Amino acid sequence: MGVPFSYSLRNLRTRKLTTFLTVSGMGLVVFVFSAVMMLAEGFTKTLVETGSYDNVVVLRKSSESEVQSGMERLQASIVESQPEVALGPDGRRLAAKEALFLIVLPKKSSGKVANVAIRGIADTSLALRPQVKVVEGRMPRTGMAEVIVGSNIAKRFSVASVGGTIRFATRDWTVVGVFDAGNTGYSSEVWADVDQLMPAFRRPVYSSVIFKLRDSSRFDDVKARIEADPRLTLDVKRETKYYADQSEIMAKFLRILGVSLTVVFSLGAVIGAMITMYSAVANRTGEIGTMRALGFRRRDILGAFIMEALLLGFIGGLAGLFFASFLQFFTISTLNFQTFADLSFSFALTPGTVWKSMAFALVMGLTGGILPAFRAANMNIVEALRTS
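The chain above was modelled as a monomer; its predicted structure follows.
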């Protein structure tokens, strides 16, 4: 016969103070672990959602980002003329020759400057990104020194309101609108006419060509043709893959940081759980002897104490996840290691983060309870009853 689950639960309720302290320690560790995992997931989600599966990004070969890429005008025209490029309702090709630069703007909160990505766009750029909505003002006009700023830039940086001007690249640029791109990296960019930006930055080449596929299944065909063309030294990626690669370095860094921190913090939580379980064994020596005398086997006692330890970890995990879930309401920013531009994003609680956090909590509980459980299971019946 096995020890009923209610026995383990009742013993935790009886030791309310020690249970609370142990659960709090574990919950704090799980909170830190979950927060860092949510940070990495939020960063990755923001960049991945920036791209569209039907869009293709063409860069100079071996370039890891648009900031590092350069494409001559002839090469860009060849890419733009590929038969796989989709046509818009007006019959124009849905392809855009764009350039990406970095400018510095002061933050509202601290006044310190940070790098901001400014994208040179074409007439078709907005059609390639249906998630982008103009929420105030209008888009920049072709041939004019005008900019439209992303919603995150408008919130976090000291930029002029619509109708004002900002100065960069030795020129004054009129702010004509604000756009919202949802939870994507575009909301952390400034846009302007590409043919105005390139001369201002004294740059004769584009950064990339972005186009929409007429048929998404033809991606491999256009990729093979462009990369094999001897006139071109270009790499072709789906836009989703391009932005997923952008997030890889930073997300990996955050995950390594999170694991390192929680391993250190978890040592204290495991020691706390171990002390709690050893105390439970010491206080229930007579009870353990009585259970053995009534016919409960060693493995029944072992299972009961391991169950208590796992319950401590489970409750601590739930508590840590509960408080970590509120981080989803916060937006933070960091430096994108690939583009060296400021990027705003939110914490993201995913199913993967939930099960990893709960697994981590259960491992902490098991690690802290396994030795006390063996001690309880290996007690001599006569000595345990004599001690009581």
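The chain has two domains: 5-48+246-387, 62-232.
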